[in-house]
TrEMBL record:
Pathway: Cofactor biosynthesis; (R)-pantothenate biosynthesis; (R)-pantothenate from (R)-pantoate and beta-alanine: step 1/1
Matching CDD domains: PanC
Residues making up the signal peptide according to the UniProt record: none
Active site per the UniProt annotation: H36
Keyword Nucleotide-binding: yes
Cellular compartments per GO CC: cytosol
Catalytic reaction list: (R)-pantoate + beta-alanine + ATP = (R)-pantothenate + AMP + diphosphate + H(+)
Organism of this sequence: Novosphingobium piscinae
Name by which UniProt lists this protein: Pantothenate synthetase
Amino acid sequence: MQTVNRIDPLRDAVGALRREGPLALVPTMGALHEGHLTLVREARRRAAHVAVSIFVNPRQFGAGEDLAAYPRRLAEDSALLAAEGVALLWAPTAEVMYPAGYATNIAVTGVSDGLCGAARPGHFDGVATVVCKLFNQVRPDLALFGEKDWQQLAVIRRMARDLDLVRPHVDRIIGVPTVREADGLAMSSRNAYLTPAERAAAAALPRAMQAAIARIAAGTPVDAALAELVAALHAGGFAAVDYAALCDAGTLAPLAERGTGPARLLVAARIGRARLIDNMAA
Ligand code: PAF
């Protein structure tokens, strides 16, 4: 595996890889877990070569968020990726990504307004901006993202469609189902913030979500099922629930009742130092 952290060698490396066949990109912020490795394995199935980026993007963290504390483990991550057969690790510094004088921002309206967009103002501008840059830097044929960040995936697809991105074309932005621990908790780099007691309590999140989905399917009004979900999280040790919403799976518009189209239950809740997000088909 080749590791590069400057633009010129990156262009040479991706040029050589793309001559051998389709190149897939898996963008990450590092602190890799089984969820990321699942993305890499899926990428390897779909492309001749896989590039992974590791960049803890300051522009997607708000004031007072966990930018400084975000786990950074480049050496361990690099060993994991090499063992998975990744061809290229793109690990730019903040100065390479945002050199002095950097002044451009990508804002995707609509799909990024509610949910995490409302709870974390500016977050999705930071995500759209860095992902657009990563796409332009690596020029992959396809890119893979975890469905755990369902709203992020919707924002990235909207951005790719609106900006007529060629590489990767919007149809080649692949969402990969969430990987879960044995007790149902979605894998996340932020699970590392949890104490053992908080980690055990955090399994209340997927449990409460499944219960809410079952209640809605059985005819409980959506607002009542969501209120029960929030109460279950508080009872289970969560300090705050940023949102719990049933939404149209594509537009993320909130649904007051379960219609016939694809719907998604999305939740963000805080326990200990961690803000956990999850989503499920509903
Ligand atoms: O999902 C993430 O890890 C990040 O938001 C991403 C897509 C790598 C952009 O920084």
